[in-house]
Specification:
The complex is a heteropentamer.
Chain A lengths: L1 H29 L29 H25 L5 H24 L6
Helix pairs in contact in A: 2-3
Chain D lengths: L5 H21 L3 H25 L10 H31 L13
Chain E lengths: L1 H21 L3 H21 L3 H25 L13 H23 L28 H8 L1 H11 L2 H22 L9 H27 L1
The chains are: A mainly alpha, B mainly alpha, C mainly alpha, D mainly alpha, E mainly alpha.
């Protein structure tokens, strides 16, 4: 059954989480614990933190995230085409050329609009 | 070549969609590459003209299948392309032509004022929304239906919020988006239940699977089926802004720039009503009124209540409106209510003759709305607001346009002698004559309510006319309208007048369009149509006697296209 | 090749095998020994190797105090980290602060079971193994974001946002450069890819293959945040990027996760491009090792030992390449970094997909693959596309510096959020 | 290795759907509403794949119609989120708040 | 063993969905949402649609969750913990409506009786066998499960080609539209009339800023 592949991966997942948490727990036990107020401040190269943690964010991040989302979904369509390429004839290649052309225009648009520049 | 490779000729039927989408890409690239240096006003005009050329090219390409005389699929024969996912035939071509003409007017309207700086994206999104609408009309399957519905609405979400200098445009867009995606999630859950009930995604096959030939009693006995129908109705109710799901419409119409709200009121509503008719008749038809012996109510009652609510609420709310676009939004809700009566007649009668009047009404309604919204565009261009009292004295200053607006408003009311009247007349008379006695009472009520609402609607339309003709013009007078506004208003007034005096050509045309397969519930194919699956009938206008015709029932599992490379429905 | 063994070690692949009940004990042994024993050991000594190699590049010796040749250095580091105080800033979000490094480490671990170390030696072989691998390796971006956000420090949040933006931008070329492999192998399962490479020779030995290998390596380096793409946690930039507020073993987890993903990513590179476990010579021909089925664990290991050796040699070469690049190349500026991904790598990978389709038609589809035609057609295509995209990229980059320095006579396109 | 009955999957999907709907009704922040919509779409996906797996495909249809539907639903949901966040950011720059019910400039 | 596994995944799935809806802090809600997506992917694996599980993890957790998190960061509530739920009364009303709908749905699911040859839902307890080749009911479904990438690829480019190209157009429209919405100013054009326009734009922004400060100070 295909599920058994993923049962092994599930066991690996749980094992990895345990493998990651074990040292932190051990550290909690072994390591010395001396609380002091100055230690618990957020680190600002030694200065006191100025201004609350809301800083001007550029819209840039959002644009990179959309570009990634669109190309990510594009690969979700590309992979099955690549797998079935052998059995599909030439028309499938033509269809995929059209699909990639459509998405290349999206990339060219973002490029031309200048949003890809990290200003 | 794998078993069901798409036949090359199928793509010919898709010519308009292919041209529109590639043209949208072309417009976007031209805007980014060549026109960077120009100001947004000049860019708007240049790209507007180019988009109109694209729409005209698509319009010409509709008749490509005939010109190419492919030898087999003449375009008058209904046939399912791409293994039953897309429909090609007379209805789809005529409605595509109508949509493209409306699109040309909307694009022309968009060049009136400098509503955005991103013109390339604006026109491309309008073109892609049209591709979504055409494919929505042509889709024969739940998957393509959902995808094209979403494609149309997502393009419209973005375009609604395109006037970035206006706060209301962004807010209207967001409200439209939130309502839209919630209702599309509900719609999808309804589709998944339907898929579970019948096991197939093709509409015709669903209809046959739901046919009450078995012991299953109608809607009441089967709660899962009832939930599926209700959720599908919610999805479509949102799209045609029927009452319980209409809160988004006034805000979206008022917020969006005038040409976009024109496109919302005409194109999006037209495609959604045709899709609603197709799903209700073809897929959910058997459950319309439950099995005759057990008088378990089908969903006809629900749709009747929705239609009544939509009519009355739309009209009463429109009475109190100050803003022209918001009033037009409520009037478009009211018209959705009238059209639902026509849809009910189609479902109950399950005859193709009943679908003609609804299409007739759609044509007339969308033409009138284009004219009305072009007035709103003109008003906004000069005065920056779209309150009704800003129209004061317009009729006196521009008598010809004033007359045209008069014709428009009267046609929207449904005054005899104008196209609007014939639309309502055909639809209501069809509703009264259709259906067996059980439905007589409901239709009587609906038609009565419809007439009463038409009278109420007179009040708010007349208020616009009163402002234009009787009030002295206050504040800055409006400058001369651009050619595009003039053309739009005169064009729609001409439609209202010509088809008002002589409705015959349009009604025969719409009756011919109504003969498409999607308006025949699969559960009754045997009675209405000769059983042989394939019969070609010469073009409708050639001879009228052979009214009965058989689109090949390609979809039903009873006669599934065997997986031969060329399904038999095409063998001539 | 996909042979069912009754004592399949560690083959748990159950697609066609008659494994109707799950061999729990065997799996737990495999997990404990291989996944939580050998691999962390390899990773620890990769860290040691990196420090030694980097030292050699800078003409110094590197760690040699602890044990002979500094071999016990990794263990010393581990003990030091464990005994440090577990410090979490007061304003930080305690739980998310802990979940973030765990998420990154887990995403690195989950890549390993799918990779075929030898003939039939993939721990797990699901039919869509490669897309599973891509999906799991995209989890780390989320982990990095949560690390930055949870420490409620505006510099670490800014560093995390920049790191995620870079990761996300380089994941697209990574994913696109794997498409040629699937096209040639005709399936997503890693074992079939291995079998195809045995038949047709390494996928590297073809012009589109080379191009795809180069783009994949560049994307892998960026994916793991190593020089020249390690801007987010570069010392000179924003304190220490997203793991400013992490100390002690929590920081150790990040360190372990980074080197484990270096190992995982290089295993991916070798498995799909360098024909994991097969020798470059003879190029093609009969399978290297045939499993008659029913071998015992010991026989299985013995048979596969040379293959595992070759695989590990290739992986270490790949990792050495990364060390080498880290020791020599300077760090890229942020805008060059992003522009390079979107304006050079993505177009190149898209074009490469079509060139690989041409290679498929010439070599793999015909019964007798003629490599001459394949090379003859695709080599010029590859060269032309590289030059074309490079020219395009150059022209767009050339326009920019002027703008940036002269206070942009034209308003910069995107202003900050008001 | 007894099998899982179909109704378990359907009840799980219905529960997630209803929770998503409640989220839409209860939450005020536009991004929280967007998350609730994603839950509803995923619930519908589970429904589709469950019906595909437990039913035998009809002759004329594709053998994986349920999975294909789910793949296209994921594409639509991704496009919807991208556009939704774009609209929310546009509204945020105008109103400095992404709460759905604080938008009352369009009254009447 | 399958049923236990399903039970665990289903309860954790419902809990994480509830967490997304009820968490006060938006980023915590986002975290619960990511957990929910992962558990839905596990459900797909339980249904043996593993290509879909990989696509779900890749698209939802890899991209959609990142965009949602960026959306939270780019709107003011960086800590993400401003009040985001409605009043107590609204809460109970929403909850009741949800419970009502749930009972109707569950009643519908359990009491659905089959039609036209399809078995009723609650009678379907075993899925069509794939593994022992002899017991396979439909060869095409078995082939699809064993190599889903191939089956999806074939169907995508032959049967649903129209939906496939429409999805391409939809993605580009979303990309182009979202970028057009996100850009603060118009394209960088030297035309003076553009400049005037964007100055008004800047002024109106400043005006909004001042006005919103006023309202917040008064509130």
């Amino acid at each position: 059954m295909i599920i058994y592949n993923y049962v092994f991966i599930g066991m690996l997942l749980l094992g990895a989480i345990g493998f990651a948490l074990a040292p932190v727990i051990v550290m909690g036990i072994l390591a010395p614990r001396k609380r002091s107020s100055s230690k618990a401040d957020t680190y600002e190269c030694g200065l006191l933190t100025t201004g609350e943690t809301w800083v001007r964010f550029r819209i840039q991040y959002y644009i990179y995230a959309i570009m990634f989302l669109v190309f990510d979904v594009e690969t979700v369509f590309l992979y099955p085409w690549a797998v079935a390429y052998e059995r599909l004839g030439l028309f499938a290649l033509a269809e995929m050329v059209v699909f990639l052309l459509i998405l290349a225009v999206g990339l060219a648009y973002a490029w031309g609009k200048g949003v890809l520049k990290w200003v | 070549m794998p078993v069901n490779a798409p036949v090359l000729f199928d793509f010919i039927h898709l010519a308009p969609e292919i041209i529109l989408s590639l043209w949208g890409l072309f417009v976007v690239m031209i805007d980014v590459a060549l026109l960077r240096r120009r100001s947004s006003a000049t860019r708007g005009r240049i790209l507007g003209v180019m988009s109109i050329i694209g729409a005209l090219a698509a319009l010409a390409s509709i008749y490509l299948p005939d010109m190419m005389d492919l030898g087999h699929a003449a375009s008058n024969v209904e046939e399912s392309l791409f293994q039953g996912t897309i429909l090609g035939g007379l209805l789809v071509e005529r409605l595509t032509a109508l949509l493209l003409i409306l699109l040309i007017f909307v694009i022309a309207l968009s060049t009136t004022w400098d509503l955005t700086e991103h013109w390339g994206e604006y026109y491309a999104l309008l073109l892609w929304a049209t591709v979504g609408m055409i494919l929505l009309i042509a889709s024969e399957e739940l998957l393509t239906l959902f995808l094209t519905l979403e494609m149309m609405t997502i393009c419209l979400y973005i375009v609604t919020a395109f006037e970035k200098d206006q706060r209301r445009s962004a807010e209207g867009g967001l409200k439209y988006f939130v309502y839209g995606s919630v209702s599309s999630a509900l719609f999808l859950f309804g589709l998944s239940l339907l898929y579970g009930l019948t096991g197939t995604t093709r509409l015709a096959a669903i209809g046959l699977a739901l046919a009450p030939a078995h012991t299953s009693i109608g809607l009441v006995g089967n709660v899962a089926g009832a939930m599926a129908v209700l959720l599908v109705l919610v999805g479509f109710g949102f799209k045609i802004s029927a009452v319980p799901f209409h809160q988004w419409a006034p805000d979206a119409y008022e917020g969006a720039p005038a040409p976009v709200s024109a496109w919302l009121a005409t194109g999006s509503k037209l495609a959604s009503i045709v899709a609603l008719m197709k799903v209700l008749v073809q897929a959910l038809g058997p459950w319309a009124h439950g099995v005759n012996d057990i008088s378990s109510p089908g969903w006809v009652g629900i749709v009747a209540v929705i239609s009544a609510l939509t009519m009355t609420y739309g009209n009463f709310a429109a009475l109190a409106q100050k803003n022209l676009k918001r009033m037009l939004a409520y009037s478009s809700i009211a018209h959705a209510g009238y059209m639902l009566v026509g849809v009910l007649a189609v479902v109950v009668g399950a005859g193709k003759s009943a679908a003609g009047p609804v299409l007739f009404y759609l044509v007339v309604y969308s033409a009138a709305n284009i004219g009305a919204f072009s007035i709103a565009a003109w008003l906004y261009r000069d005065k920056g607001t779209d309150q009704i009292e800003d129209l004061n004295g317009l009729g006196l200053k521009y008598p010809i346009l004033g007359m045209c607006v008069l014709l428009l408003m009267l046609s929207l009311i449904g005054l005899p002698g104008l196209a609007g009247f014939w639309g309502k007349f055909f639809m209501f008379s069809e509703a009264l004559s259709q259906g067996d006695d059980r439905h007589k009472l409901t239709f009587l009520w609906l038609v009565g309510l419809g007439l009463m609402n038409s009278v109420i609607s007179a009040f708010y339309y007349v208020r616009v006319l009163r402002a234009m003709f009787l009030r002295p013009s206050t504040g800055r007078p409006l400058q001369a309208p651009t050619l595009t506004i003039r053309l739009a208003v005169i064009g729609s007034a001409a439609v209202a007048l010509i088809f008002g005096l002589y409705p015959q050509p349009l009604s025969t045309e719409t009756d011919a369009m109504a003969e498409s397969r999607i308006f025949i519930t699969p559960s009754r194919p045997a009675e209405l149509l000769s059983v042989s699956p394939v019969r070609v009938v010469p073009r409708p206008n050639a001879s009228d006697d052979t009214r009965l015709r058989a689109g090949p029932i390609g979809g039903g599992p009873s006669a599934p296209p065997e997986p031969t490379p060329v399904p038999d429905s095409r063998a001539k | 090749m996909n042979v069912a063994c009754d004592w399949a070690f560690p083959l748990v692949w159950a697609q066609q095998s008659e494994l109707d009940s799950i061999p729990w004990l065997k799996w737990i042994i495999v997990l404990a020994v291989v996944f939580f024993g050998i691999f962390p050991g390899i990773v620890a000594y990769t860290v040691w190797g990196e420090r030694k190699v980097a030292a050699r590049f800078q003409d110094r010796i590197g760690p040699n105090r602890v044990g002979p040749l500094g071999l016990l250095q990794p263990i010393a580091d581990a003990i030091k980290l464990i005994t440090k105080e577990d410090l979490v800033p007061r304003s930080a979000d305690r739980w998310v602060h802990l979940i973030a490094p765990v998420l990154i480490l887990v995403s690195a671990f989950l890549v390993l079971p799918v990779i075929p170390f030898g003939v039939g030696l993939a721990a797990v072989n699901p039919p869509s193994g490669l897309i599973y691998l891509i999906a799991v390796s995209s989890l780390s971006a989320l982990g990095i974001f949560l690390a930055g956000w949870s420490s409620r420090n505006k510099y670490s949040l800014l560093g995390a946002m920049r790191a995620v933006a870079q990761l996300v931008s380089y994941e697209v070329p990574q994913v696109l450069s794997i498409v040629p492999i699937i096209l040639w192998a005709g399936s997503l399962s890693m074992v079939t890819i291995f079998d195809k490479q045995v038949l047709y020779g390494w996928f590297l030995f073809s012009p589109p293959g080379m191009l795809a290998f180069v783009t994949l390596t560049i994307a892998n380096i960026a994916e793991v945040n190593r020089t020249p793409f390690d801007l987010p946690e570069a010392e000179s930039e924003i304190i220490a990027g997203y793991h400013t507020e992490y100390s002690g073993m929590r920081f150790g987890l990040f360190f372990l996760a980074e080197y484990l993903s270096v190992f995982a990513v290089s295993c991916l590179g070798t498995a799909i491009f360098l024909g994991g476990g097969t020798l470059p010579w003879p190029l093609t021909g009969e399978p290297v090792v045939t499993l008659g089925g029913g071998e015992t664990l010991f026989a299985m290991l013995l048979l596969n030992l040379p293959l595992i050796g070759i695989f590990m040699a290739k992986v270490s070469l790949y990792i050495f390449l990364m060390f080498w690049i880290r020791a020599t190349l300077p760090r890229l500026r942020v805008d060059q970094l992003m522009a390079f991904a979107w304006k050079f790598m993505v177009p190149l990978c898209i074009i490469n997909i079509f060139i690989s389709a041409v290679w498929y038609e010439c070599v793999i589809r015909p019964s007798k693959p003629n490599y001459l035609l394949g090379w003859g057609v695709t080599l010029p295509l590859v060269v032309v596309s590289i030059i074309g995209v490079l020219a395009l990229y150059r022209s767009s980059m050339k326009a920019e510096p002027v703008e940036l320095t002269t206070g942009s006579r034209r308003r910069s396109v995107v202003r900050s959020v008001s | 290795m007894n099998d899982i009955p179909l109704t378990w999957f359907l009840i799980f999907a219905a529960a997630c759907f209803v929770i998503g709907l409640m989220g839409v009704l209860v939450r005020r922040n536009a991004i929280a509403v967007l998350m609730a919509i994603e839950i509803m779409l995923n619930a519908a996906n589970i429904n589709l794949v469950a019906f595909w797996r437990y039913g035998t495909p009809v002759e004329g249809d594709s053998p994986i119609s349920g999975v294909m539907f789910a793949i296209f639903v994921i594409t639509v949901a991704a496009a919807e989120v991208a556009v939704g966040i774009g609209l929310i950011l546009l509204c945020y720059r105008r109103w400095h708040a992404a709460d759905v019910d604080r938008f009352d400039s369009l009254s009447g | 063993m399958n049923q236990i596994l399903f039970g665990v995944i289903a309860t954790m799935g419902v809990l994480s969905a509830l967490g997304t809806v009820l968490a006060r802090n938006l980023v915590h809600a986002g975290l619960f949402l990511v957990a929910f997506f992962f558990l839905i992917a596990c459900q797909f694996v339980m249904l043996e649609a593993e290509f879909l599980a990989a696509v779900q993890v890749l698209v939802y957790i890899g991209a959609v969750a990142i965009i949602l998190m960026f959306g939270i960061m780019l709107t003011r509530n960086i800590q993400g913990d401003d009040t985001t739920t409605v009043s107590r009364a609204g809460f109970i009303a929403g909850g009741l409506a949800a419970v009502g709908l749930l009972t109707v749905l569950i009643f519908g699911i359990t009491h659905e009786e089959g039609r036209s040859g399809r078995p009723a839902w609650n009678s379907v307890t075993t899925r069509p066998a794939i593994y022992p080749a002899s017991a396979r009911k439909s060869e095409s479904q078995a082939a699809a499960i064993n190599n889903m990438g191939l089956a999806v690829g074939e169907d995508l480019l032959t049967r649903y080609i129209v939906a496939f190209e429409a999805a391409g157009i939809l993605l580009t429209a979303a990309l182009v539209g979202a970028i057009a919405l996100a850009i603060q100013e118009g394209p960088v054009s030297d035309d003076p009339s553009d400049r005037v326009k964007s100055k008004q734009n800047a002024e109106s922004l400043a005006a909004d800023e001042a006005e919103s400060l006023l309202t917040s100070s008064r509130a």
